[in-house]
Structure formats: structure tokens, C-alpha cells
Write a structure and sequence with these properties.
Length: about 110
């Protein structure tokens, strides 16, 4: 896999960035809020189209599913995750608690 040197940072710079972000207090939720806001701003500015937003949401959903415990990962779970991501990126605030996401009742679901 070829790397685009203009778009990648070296390991030392990455470690410094990680340290700086930790010192500022950025964590997953803060980063996610920033990502959603950035996507919203870029969509409104005409930089990102709906296809790009869709690919971003798909990448996020894929990561959530990969990290989910086996007994939780199901088609219904993915559907709920995608519905919630759609609501987040649409600016809807009332989604209910995450523990209401449909979980598989058995490993075969």
C-alpha cells in the first residue's frame, strides 16, 4: 500500500499529537462530536456530498459492529446503529439511550 507523504504524519508527530490531545482532554465522545460537526459544516459548504457522508457513516458503523461482542452483533443491531448515525448526522438530538439498541438474544440471531 502506497502512502501519500503529504497526508500522513510520522510516528514521532503522531505520538506528540496523541499526547497533546490527551492533555487537552479529548476523548472518544469529544472527537465524535467534532467529526459530526465537521461533516455537517462541510456538507453545508458543499464540500461533502451525501455519498461522502454515507461512506463516513458506513465506516463508523463498520467499526462499531467489528468492536461489538459476538452475541450483540446482528443485522438488527447494525440497523439500529445506522438509524442512530443517520439521526446524529441529521442533527436530531432525541435518540434515546444506547442501551435501547436491539441486541441479539442468542449467538445465532
Amino acid at each position: 500500500m502506497e502512502e501519500d507523504n503529504d497526508m500522513t504524519i510520522n510516528q514521532a508527530d503522531h505520538k506528540k499529537l496523541h499526547f497533546d490531545l490527551t492533555n487537552v482532554g479529548l476523548r472518544a465522545q469529544a472527537t465524535a462530536v467534532g467529526l459530526v460537526q465537521l461533516c455537517t459544516e462541510l456538507r453545508h459548504a458543499g464540500v461533502l456530498d451525501e455519498g461522502a457522508i454515507g461512506r463516513i457513516k458506513t465506516a463508523i458503523a463498520d467499526e462499531i459492529i467489528v468492536c461489538a461482542p459476538r452475541q450483540v452483533a446482528s443485522k438488527e443491531y447494525r440497523k439500529d446503529v445506522c438509524t442512530r448515525l443517520d439521526a446524529l448526522f441529521a442533527g436530531e438530538r432525541k435518540m434515546g439511550p444506547a442501551d435501547e439498541i436491539v441486541m441479539a438474544s442468542s449467538p445465532g440471531d
